[in-house]
Structure formats: structure tokens, C-alpha cells
């Protein structure tokens, strides 16, 4: 299956650069996966498409300030690091820029004075990273040394890891977190959840819609571009997930009673499908998932999906095409472009049912 089959035209002006002041003020495109019927609504009208007995499954990962700006210890040249996955012994898998100049053995300084100022009483760096090994597409394994607590230093020095297509500054860090974010570890937000306020979640619960939580720490697997010519040639990087016994029991009870499992975001959908047993029940557990969902996949758990609009030729676009059909999805995207929906992380929402 050609990757080009998942391409579409998107004017750059439709890429949302800033979040709306009110989380629930976005638009909502609905897509009926069997008929391809498209509807246009406000996000707050989502509850019309949810029924008592359904369960919303949300990803409660919390984004860490994973983008670090530093300098090379030998030259003072600027360097940028995006932390993706913690490894043993103060080591991290990361993306770096400029990758061509950050070879194995390169030492980076974060915080403190520049190397050229060291002899003039400049502050020593708060974090030091050494490139241990090199991977493809700018990935590296970094070993950090520091004094104190790493997460506190990261909170002090790090920046929220906004996608490269967002050029505007984020007014406040929490706007790139879901209101239910709990477990630290993501390099990007599960953006479908950004539309919810606590008041709106409470409103859904009062209607009889249940809430369940899974954790998937978003890393390279979710947003790495597809470089292969065919879908089947692409390999996903693994990301850490957790499904609690409480969530598994709740989801399985809903399915037994005929309710729908509604995944909030592709990360929740991938977690649910990773933890699905052959019999269609959800299994509690944790581990690493590299699941890649594209047309031809049979969903075992997910019955409906709330999501944002995704990049052309991305694995996320392939996932929603597996649920609703490629032609239906691309037709909906064409209509969204015509009606000037806001796209990507801070954009509008889409509900596939």
C-alpha cells in the first residue's frame, strides 16, 4: 500500500498556531464510519453522540518540558535536544539538532555560562550531556551528568516540546497539557484531550458516560514521519504504556453490556488495541508498544474515536483510515479544508463513530 495514498492538500494558513482561550470552543467534524456521512458541529455538541453506558478512554500522560537548548562544550555552538525516552543510568533516547554536528563523544552544556566564559567566572552548566551513540533521522542516546534532581533541573531548563509546525510561543505551559494529565513522561501532548475542561467531563459523567484512563507516553513512534514508499515498510518506535486493572475491568464491563468504547485520541486507541486479547477483552498490564494500525487492521476494543486532524501521509492518518475507511477520511478532510477547519495539535476535533 503506497504511502502517497494518504496524502492531501493543506494550506499552511489552516495550521493552528495557538490554542483557543476556551478549550471547548473548537469545532467538531463528525464522520459516520459505515456510510461516510459528515456533520459539522461545535465541540460541546459531542455529548449528542455519546450515550449513557459508553466509556470514554483518556490518556493521562503528562508532557515533560523535554526540549533543551544548549551549546557544544568545545565550541559554544548552539544545539537543541528533544528528550524522547528514558533509559537506564541517566541516559535518554533523544532527537538532536544539528544532527550532523552532534557525533558520538560530543559534550553538550545546558544552563550556566558559555564555554568561552569559563575562565571569566561564568556559572558551570547545570546539565551536561554526552552523545553515546547515533541512530537514524537525528536520534541519539545521551548520557547526562548533574547535581541534584533531574526532573527539577528539567523543569527549570526545559521548554514544552511543541511540534515544529507551530511557530508561535505558548502563552502558558499548562495549555499544552490535558486537564487530567497525571503521569509524567510524554514528549508531546495527546492533543485530542486538549478540548476537554473538567466541567465538561463532569457534565458527561452526569449523563451516565463513564471515564477510564490509560497511559501512553508519547514519543518518536507517534510523530516520526513515514520515510518509506509503502506503508508496510514503515517501522514504529516503541512507546511505554500502562493499563490498570480498574480500567480493564470497566472497559470489559461496558463491552459486555453493549456500550461503546470511545478512545480519546490515537494514543488511547493504540494503547487499547495493544492490550486487547484475542477474545476482545482488555488486559491489564504495562510494557512497550510498537503497534502500527493501518487499513486492513481489525479493531478489537475501539468502537469510536475522538481525534484531531493529522498530518498528510502520517501513521495517525493511516490509523483513522483503518477505522473509518481511507476514502471516507480523505473526503472528510477535503471538506474540512474547504470549510477552513483548524488543523493539527491546537486545531479542531473530529469524531468517528
From TrEMBL:
The biological process GO terms on file are: tRNA queuosine(34) biosynthetic process
Q: According to its record, what are the GO cellular component terms?
A: cytoplasm
Q: What metabolic or biological pathway is this protein involved in?
A: tRNA modification; tRNA-queuosine biosynthesis
According to its UniProt record, which reaction does this protein catalyse? 7-aminomethyl-7-carbaguanosine(34) in tRNA + S-adenosyl-L-methionine = epoxyqueuosine(34) in tRNA + adenine + L-methionine + 2 H(+)
Q: Which UniProt keywords apply?
A: Cytoplasm, Isomerase, Queuosine biosynthesis, S-adenosyl-L-methionine, Transferase
Q: What are the EC numbers?
A: 2.4.99.17
Please tell me whether the keyword Metal-binding is annotated for this protein.
no
How does the annotation summarize its subunit structure? Monomer.
The family this protein is said to belong to: Belongs to the QueA family.
Task: Tell me, in a sentence or two, what this protein's role is.
Answer: Transfers and isomerizes the ribose moiety from AdoMet to the 7-aminomethyl group of 7-deazaguanine (preQ1-tRNA) to give epoxyqueuosine (oQ-tRNA).
Name it: S-adenosylmethionine:tRNA ribosyltransferase-isomerase
From what organism does this protein derive? Paenibacillus tianmuensis
Gene for this protein? queA
Amino acid at each position: 500500500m503506497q504511502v502517497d495514498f494518504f496524502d492531501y492538500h493543506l494550506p499552511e494558513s489552516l495550521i493552528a498556531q495557538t490554542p483557543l482561550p476556551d478549550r471547548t470552543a473548537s469545532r467538531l467534524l463528525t464522520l459516520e464510519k459505515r456510510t461516510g456521512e459528515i456533520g459539522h458541529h461545535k465541540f460541546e455538541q459531542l455529548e449528542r453522540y455519546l450515550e449513557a453506558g459508553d466509556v470514554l478512554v483518556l490518556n493521562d500522560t503528562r508532557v515533560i518540558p523535554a526540549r533543551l537548548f544548549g551549546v557544544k562544550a568545545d565550541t559554544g555552538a548552539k544545539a537543541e535536544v528533544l528528550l524522547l525516552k528514558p533509559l537506564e543510568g541517566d541516559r535518554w533516547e533523544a532527537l538532536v539538532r544539528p544532527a550532523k554536528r552532534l557525533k558520538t563523544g560530543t559534550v553538550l552544556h545546558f544552563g550556566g555560562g558559555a564555554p568561552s566564559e569559563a575562565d571569566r567566572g561564568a556559572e558551570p552548566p547545570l546539565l551536561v550531556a554526552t552523545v553515546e551513540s547515533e541512530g537514524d533521522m537525528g536520534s541519539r542516546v545521551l548520557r547526562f551528568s548533574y547535581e541534584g534532581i533531574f526532573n527539577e533541573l528539567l523543569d527549570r531548563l526545559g521548554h514544552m516540546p511543541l511540534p515544529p509546525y507551530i511557530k508561535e510561543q505558548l502563552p502558558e505551559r499548562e495549555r499544552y497539557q490535558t486537564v487530567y494529565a497525571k503521569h509524567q513522561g510524554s514528549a508531546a501532548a495527546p492533543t485530542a484531550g486538549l478540548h476537554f475542561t473538567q466541567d465538561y467531563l463532569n457534565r458527561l459523567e452526569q449523563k451516565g458516560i463513564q471515564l477510564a484512563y490509560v497511559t501512553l507516553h508519547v514519543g518518536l513512534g507517534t510523530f516520526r514521519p513515514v520515510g518509506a514508499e509503502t506503508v508496510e515498510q514503515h517501522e514504529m518506535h516503541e512507546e511505554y504504556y500502562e493499563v490498570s486493572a480498574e480500567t480493564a475491568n470497566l472497559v470489559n464491563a461496558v463491552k459486555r453490556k453493549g456500550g461503546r468504547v470511545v478512545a480519546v485520541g490515537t494514543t488511547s486507541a493504540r494503547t487499547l488495541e495493544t492490550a486487547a486479547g484475542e477474545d476482545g477483552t482488555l488486559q491489564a498490564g504495562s510494557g512497550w508498544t510498537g503497534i502500527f494500525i493501518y487499513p486492513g487492521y481489525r479493531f478489537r476494543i475501539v468502537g469510536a474515536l475522538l481525534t484531531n486532524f493529522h498530518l498528510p501521509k502520517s501513521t495517525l492518518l493511516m490509523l483513522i483510515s483503518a477505522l473509518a475507511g481511507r476514502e471516507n477520511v480523505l473526503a472528510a478532510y477535503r471538506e474540512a479544508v474547504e470549510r477552513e477547519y483548524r488543523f493539527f495539535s491546537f486545531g479542531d476535533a473530529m469524531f468517528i463513530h
